[in-house]
Design goal:
By secondary structure, the chain is an all-alpha fold. The protein has one domain. Helix content is 72%, strand content 0%. The longest helix has 24 residues. It is globular, with a radius of gyration of 13 Å.
């Protein structure tokens, strides 16, 4: 799966990560989408590095979605740590 596929998966994975880790984050929907894209790319890269596969199976495979969601949760957690948990008022 190419980088454009990971971007599409990342957009959806960002929404799933936000649902798994609810809370008020600064930035709103745009930041959530960016976190998802970065997390999807991170998840794909980690899947290649950790499991030694040449590519995650494809758009509709469970391993692709798990990698993207895990990557998005990691990036969301790092984002919350870096912003200090500040919420919009």
């Amino acid at each position: 799966m190419g980088i454009l596929g990971w971007i599409v998966v990342g957009l959806l994975a960002g929404a799933i990560a936000k649902a798994l880790m609810p809370g008020k984050d600064p930035g709103g929907c745009l930041i959530t989408m960016l976190i998802g894209v970065v997390g999807g790319l991170l998840g794909g890269w980690l899947g290649k590095v950790i499991f030694g596969v040449k590519s995650i199976n494809g758009f509709f495979h469970l391993s692709t979605w798990i990698a993207a969601v895990v990557g998005s949760v990691i990036v969301l957690l790092l984002y919350r740590l870096l912003t200090g948990g500040r919420a919009r008022r």
